[in-house]
Specification:
This protein is 38% helix and 20% strand. The protein has 116 residues and is of the alpha/beta class. It has a single domain (4-115), classed as DsrEFH-like (Hypothetical Protein Ychn, Chain: A, 3-Layer(aba) Sandwich), CATH 3.40.1260.10. A 5-stranded parallel beta sheet has the order 4-3-2-1-5. The radius of gyration is 13 Å and the shape is globular.
Length: 116
């Protein structure tokens, strides 16, 4: 069984993204290595998490505080107009695959990749 998980979030629906956050916390609390990669439409959600009382903001911040967000896609955040938000939030920006994070990099580092 894999001990390392990379959760790639592409879906921009808040309810769907909340499942990425919930699963990351669950995996982390069970002692596994877990990383969240914020890609595609999910990058448009970043400004919502800057509002303290917004839905799932506390959960997002919990995940952030635990260091579970590995990166935000540079190309997708730029396309969604949220690159500045990601930078201001201090999130790691990745774009080593023509502006996007590489799934293969995580596989080569021993992560089981899950797409959301």
């Amino acid at each position: 069984m894999a001990k390392k998980f990379a959760l790639f979030s592409f879906n921009g629906e808040l309810a769907c993204f909340s499942h990425v956050l919930l699963n990351a916390i669950d995996i982390y609390e069970k002692g596994y290595d877990v990383r969240i990669i914020i890609e595609g439409q999910s990058t448009k959600l970043l400004p919502e998490f800057r509002v303290t009382d917004a839905p799932f903001s506390a959960l997002f911040n919990k995940v952030r505080e635990k260091g579970l967000i590995d990166c935000v896609c540079r190309a997708c955040a730029a396309k969604m107009g949220t690159l500045h938000d990601a930078e201001e939030m201090g999130l790691n920006i990745a774009g080593y695959l023509q502006g996007h994070p590489s799934i293969l990099k995580y596989i080569e580092d021993g992560y089981q990749v899950l797409l959301f």
